[in-house]
Automatic annotation (TrEMBL), chains A, B:
Domain Non-reducing end beta-L-arabinofuranosidase-like GH127 catalytic: 23-430
GO MF annotation: an example: hydrolase activity
Cited PANTHER family: DUF1680 DOMAIN PROTEIN (AFU_ORTHOLOGUE AFUA_1G08910) (PTHR43465)
Ranges of residues in domain Non-reducing end beta-L-arabinofuranosidase-like GH127 C-terminal: 539-650
InterPro entries: 6-hairpin_glycosidase_sf (IPR008928), Beta-AFase-like (IPR049174), Beta-AFase-like_GH127_C (IPR049049), Beta-AFase-like_GH127_cat (IPR012878), Beta-AFase-like_GH127_middle (IPR049046)
Name of the protein in question: Glycoside hydrolase family 127 protein
SUPFAM superfamilies: Six-hairpin glycosidases
Keyword Hydrolase: yes
Domain Non-reducing end beta-L-arabinofuranosidase-like GH127 middle: residue ranges: 441-537
UniProt keyword terms in alphabetical order: Hydrolase
Biological source species: Alsobacter ponti
């Protein structure tokens, strides 16, 4: 048996995701990535063009109209958008940036000169647009000239800057091309010159994003000033006097006229370190917490770490859907009250689940703890992945856990933030599977892939062979040019009840080596060493806390990391009439013919009979139960076939 | 045993409610009426003044501003209105008219010179406002002069006329004063001159109301022209070309720019006689159907009667809350899809339930059928009565069947239609208890009261002694100056399983005399004859049709006509955690000390324990059940004490 070893060198900041292109995904994720590359990314470029985003950016084109009928923009009925008009948006730079970032992730996995040329053209536009002083924002330069930096609360200016920085970093990583990176660096320098302690001006953005982007810029350039600037924005947030109120008064607006009313909408109600509840707009919150986690990693900031642990506990114990979706309310696109998790009206924006994956991933940089990896996996395979159709062509902005059959994926949206956000996550998903440190290699997620990673100064080739998430048998082979001592950290998923591990053919006592949900295996690894991790996947029933009103008397089904739902097309009775007996056996079967290949869960159920109810709406006897069969599919794959009802939480009889 | 007799003369139109002041209520309703008289009606007058309604009507005052901050209008924090401003509304005449009608009903029950003087002052304003040609509408005469009759679809012009007519008829009935009746007659004549077949102009109102009002005007004046005009408006509705589309084009507006989108919003999508589904705005629908029922009564119109039966069936078998509330959606204040009856988000406007009482009452004029009386009673005691606090001072506009504790009665509302609507119903509730015909007397509702009715040309004094709705023992004594032969129709409520009847001490075989839910007892009645009707009230469990998603696995409790709910203040555990065992015994007890005296239902329940859930949101075992006691109060009486959760539909374990 291998004995547990605590890596002395495993301190804050030592586990980082590998860069773009280091992990080549196969199996499950290869399909998702290929759909993203072949369908989603071209669609994204086309929609940006059709909506007029490039007209807004390109200084050589005429300044566009602000309102374009959707039918004109998208050539009529071929596209089914939400809403009646495209309205030029102040945050379009961020959408274009996410499209670049998604494109970059695809390019890192597979060269594509045509796609690269499309990105280069956008980069050229931005380079041409950039002002002498470094400022670059198509809305304020082209649509609203002269209004720069007057309203950080509402105008997404630093938010757009952040996404452009992320995009430029990704494009540099993927292609080695520096032009866009140079543009955003000049812009970041301009921002640093402007915002900061006296004699600079105070400020931070109404939509967090610049903070995490500056950390990325610091890491890729090695320039600490960007890190310090991120810390400034975070530490300044919520200090008194509240910047957004000062700024509103300077605009001669009453601060209380804020459309979103309370300052907790953008997490500026109290200083960040004093926050104890996840509040407000969910995407904003996730991006803020992601940046905070980065700062913990970079600065070893224990105070901020404690804050994040409190916020994590609050989210995961009171405010998170079982899908990993978050932010139940359309009113603030965000959080409401503890245990307020309605199913049919769930907002649960795709971007918020994507943001949670980002935050969780960064918490793993702080500390390898399966609490974070479990939630990352839960959000990834369910509430995030549900945002895109299997073929990559249609999208959910909201991710309800129940539908009467009237909710369908759309081809485009007035606020098109989600498709490129999910696309960049999917295309770069390999990076989320591993964490590499000076003396350690962590496997956070399991999936078929081949990675080439740098650990302890040496290259380690990792081959994962598995049918995950449909089967829990994982075979890892390490490829090393020479023997190398380091700690291999293997996540033991919280959902798995009887995991077993063999290293180089030898059984490992997991209870002895597991700490915070990771098995720590330190040894001198040799080329060809194998890891056999078996994670049996039972179909599990999940129940919600009794204060979750919407889920009283209901059960959800999970197998491995995948959450299931009943969709009308698979059932012999209406979904809302079905219930599961408390004791019925549920079994899973992989069906290669269905939904691109998924494990289906089925078992005996009951359906409430409508017999005897003719012409009656209420009566003194409940409906009789008739036998039925439940067939449940992965939640992420719903609404890819005939439209109909769907429910994650099933009645239990 | 008395044998069943079908009244030969009981044809369409023969059963009409007695006029105002004929029935003096005691017991349960005396309390409600007194609250209305002493609290609600004075509040209504005060709010009309404070909101500026009288400023708008009175031609001797300056034309008011259109927007008045609520805090100014209502003297600050003493009133807790919904919304930030009073905005002068085109439908204010209707609100003032309903206040007059409620006042009239109170005056019919109890003289009150001060109240009468207040009404007289308003009547004087309207008389002074009335134009030479008879037109009278304060919005279009004072706020929007020159814009009469340009937009019947949206501007409530005929709707306001209808409410003024109803008010004038009621005030005439209550006081004998003709001044207001003369005003509205001249206005009705003006309307008749304008709207009708060629050479008059086509038209009907976007909010039905004028139709039923014209029937009332015809009945009180004996002038058939008003009846014919009502029939014109009803038969014209939905004919092609659609009037609202023609009218919109005349205003140079695209007809499809209708804010409420579809013509079924106001039931003008197809001709009224072809309608088969209750659709659109619920109050509009109820007022339309009420007028249609009046026409069946007045014209013996069998086609219209069949339409109404279809619509009734549709409403009561697919689209009605168990409270008798209706119209689930705030979007159209109306109907959506079959079985779409969400509880927490239920709109179920007070006015809609009041309108259903009106419609049901008129269906009883068409035919004495307990189907109609049962629904009338259900809506009255539950979904309508819930709209007013026990003391008559606070109101619900929406009547959800479930609350997390955040829904409370308000003191005033931007759209103040509901309080005077319910007030006029409560103050005139005696009229709804009886139907009188040439040769018959029907008792539709049971309650402590003394009535003086005219049947078969003779005065019949009816004394009901009962503690209804808390007890089902009803003792009726007939007072006659001389013996008189007529049929007494006694409703046997659908909720009652073992009714018994004794007439003048002799047992009656109800199965032999009951038809359509009414016991028909024809005999020569003598002074002092007694009717002993016993309607045992069990606590009953009700279940909803299996297609009502919101009520799956849930049960509602009813006792007699009263529907129950669990309110937080009475429970030892949070309402949402409670469940009723399927087989537990529930008992009722009258508590004079509670909520002005109500029967309380209680019994063993379970509560889901939060033990073991610390820090967890989902787990593999359901929450353990702990014993608890359920205490349920009448739904209509909720939110009269400490704020908290409420639920009508309780989980069944």
């Amino acid at each position: 048996m291998t004995s547990p070893t605590r890596l002395a060198s495993l301190a804050c900041g030592c586990l980082r995701p590998p860069g773009l292109g280091k992990v080549r995904m196969g199996g499950f994720w290869a399909d998702r990535i290929e759909a993203t590359r072949a369908r989603t990314v071209p669609i994204l470029h086309r929609r940006c063009e059709e909506a007029g985003m490039f007209d807004q950016i390109d200084p050589h084109r005429p300044v566009p109209e602000q309102r374009i009928p959707f039918s004109t923009a998208f050539g009529g009925s071929a596209v089914r958008p939400v809403g009646g008009n495209v309205t030029a948006q102040m945050y379009w730079d961020s959408d274009v940036a996410k499209v670049i970032e998604a494109s970059a992730a695809c390019l890192a996995g597979k060269r594509d000169p045509e796609l690269e040329a499309m990105v280069d053209r956008i980069v050229d536009m931005y380079a041409d647009l950039q002002a002498e002083d470094g400022y670059v924002n198509s809305w304020f330069q082209r649509m609203q000239p002269g209004k720069r930096w007057l309203n950080l609360r509402d105008c997404h200016e630093l938010y757009c800057a952040g996404h452009m920085i992320e995009a430029a970093v990704a494009y540099f990583e993927a292609t080695g091309k520096r032009k866009f990176l140079d543009v955003v660096r000049r812009y970041a320098d301009h921002i640093i010159e402007r915002f900061g302690p006296e004699p600079r001006r105070p400020g931070y953005c109404g939509h967090e994003e610049i903070e995490l982007a500056l950390v990325k810029l610091a890491r890729v350039t090695g320039d600490r000033r960007y890190l310090d600037q991120a810390r400034y924005f975070i530490d300044q947030r919520g200090q008194k006097p509240r910047f957004f109120e000062v700024e509103a008064r300077e605009r001669n607006e009453p601060p209380e006229a804020f459309a979103h009313r309370a300052p907790d909408y953008n997490q500026s109600h109290v200083p960040v370190r004093e926050q104890t509840k996840v509040v407000g707009h969910a995407v904003r919150a996730m991006y803020l917490y992601s940046a905070m986690a980065d700062l913990v990693t970079e600065f070893g900031d224990d105070g901020l770490r404690r804050t994040l642990e409190t916020l994590w506990e609050d989210l995961t114990s009171k405010r998170l859907y079982v899908t990993g979706g978050l932010g139940p309310s359309p009113d603030n696109e965000g959080f409401t009250r503890d245990y307020d998790l309605p199913n049919e009206s769930a907002y649960a924006e795709t971007c918020a689940a994507v943001g949670l994956v980002f935050w969780a991933s960064r918490m793993l940089g702080v500390s390898p703890d399966a609490r974070y990896a479990d939630i990352m996996e839960q959000a990834l395979y369910n509430g995030a992945l549900s945002g895109m159709s299997l073929d990559g062509s249609r999208f959910f902005y909201e991710n309800p856990l129940e539908s009467q059959g009237d909710r369908h994926r759309w081809e485009w949206h007035r606020c098109p933030c989600c498709p490129p956000n999910l696309a960049r996550l999917v295309a770069s998903i390999g990076s989320f599977h591993y964490g590499v440190g000076d003396d350690a290699l962590a496997v956070h997620l399991y999936a078929e892939n081949d990675a080439e990673l740098s650990v302890a100064g040496r290259t380690v080739r990792v081959s994962q062979r598995t049918s995950y998430p449909w089967d829990g048998a994982v075979r890892i082979r390490l490829g090393l040019d020479e023997p190398s001592a380091f700690t291999l950290l293997l996540r033991i998923p919280g959902w798995c009840e009887r995991p077993t591990l063999r290293i180089a053919g030898e059984a490992v006592d997991l209870s002895a080596v597991t700490r915070d949900g990771y098995a720590w295996v330190r040894r001198e690894w040799r080329d060809g060493d194998t890891v056999e991790l078996d994670l049996p996947m039972d179909v599990q029933r999940l129940y919600a806390h009794p204060d979750v009103r919407a889920d009283r008397g209901r059960v959800a089904l999970r197998r491995g990391p995948v959450l299931y739902c009943a969709e009308a097309v698979d059932q012999t009775a209406p979904v809302h009439r079905m219930s599961l007996p408390k004791t019925g056996t549920l079994s899973a079967r992989f069906r290669a013919d269905l939904l691109g290949g998924v494990a289906v869960v089925s078992g005996p159920a009951e359906t409430a009979s409508a017999a005897g109810w003719e012409g009656r709406l209420y009566r003194r006897e409940p409906a009789a139960a008739e036998p039925a069969t439940l067939t449940a599919i992965p939640y992420f794959a719903w609404d890819n076939r005939a439209p109909g009802e769907m429910s994650v939480w099933l009645h239990e009889a």
